[in-house]
Specification:
Helix content is 54%, strand content 4%. By secondary structure, the chain is mainly α. It has a two-stranded antiparallel sheet with strand order 1-2. A hairpin with a 2-residue loop joins strand 1 (178-181) and strand 2 (184-187). The longest helix is centred in the last third of the chain and has 19 residues, at 139-157.
Length: 206
């Protein structure tokens, strides 16, 4: 909406409400309201700096294949053919969105994260694995391990291949592709990777 509509007042409203913290004394790390994972954040900030659909020409071919850019392009194209008043109605609807902040003190945050799957959200086994491995740690260690290990694995194998990577890794360390699920023998695959990984990690491998 910001990049499509030419009305400067509308642009300032979108920027101040959703995109940037505009006050004085805001540190550089907090000027952008939304922070994504390391790879997506680079693309998102490039889009913010360009503030025009044509500015996306500065992205690499690989960056344009990312979900961040593909989603941006999709919604930008949905604006085409709409009048400014119609777009303003969409903007007004955003004010009716309710954000729920959950206090998980005394609860297992990983169990809550896993339960999101039952709400119909499409959490991949890789999402669940990343949080299973990192969520129990303090923020600084989460950030360090993500940057030093997880991000580098993604860079080497490509995010689209992460499920296959972990399946191969688990079969390698187990020396087997077999897994017992609810008393029945199965082969490790995309559908049971998270369960297989949790079961393996709970064993004593010393």
């Amino acid at each position: 909406m910001h990049d499509y509509v030419e009305n400067d007042d509308f642009k300032r409203d979108i920027e101040a409400t959703f995109l940037r913290n505009m006050g004085y004394g805001v540190s550089e790390n907090h000027k952008v309201k939304l922070h994504l994972n390391r790879r997506d954040d680079v693309i998102y900030r490039k889009l913010l700096e360009s503030f025009s659909f044509c500015g996306a020409d500065g992205l690499t071919k690989q960056e344009k294949e990312s979900s961040v850019y593909q989603n941006y392009a999709f919604f930008y194209n949905q604006m085409k053919g709409l009048e400014e008043g119609q777009i303003a109605s969409i903007r007004a609807a955003l004010d009716r969105i309710v954000i729920v902040d959950l206090d998980v003190e005394g609860e297992d945050p990983q169990e809550i994260f896993e339960s999101l799957n039952s709400t119909g959200l499409d959490l991949t086994d890789v999402d669940l694995l990343r949080n299973y491995l990192l969520m129990s740690l303090d923020y600084e260690n989460q950030l360090r391990l993500y940057n030093e290990y997880w991000y580098k694995i993604e860079e080497n194998v490509n995010p689209r291949n992460m499920v296959r990577f972990f399946i191969d890794y688990l079969i390698y360390v187990k020396r087997s592709d077999a897994i017992m699920i609810r008393g029945r023998r199965a082969h490790i695959n995309e559908g049971n990777l998270y369960t297989a990984f949790k079961n393996y990690s709970m064993l004593d491998h010393r």
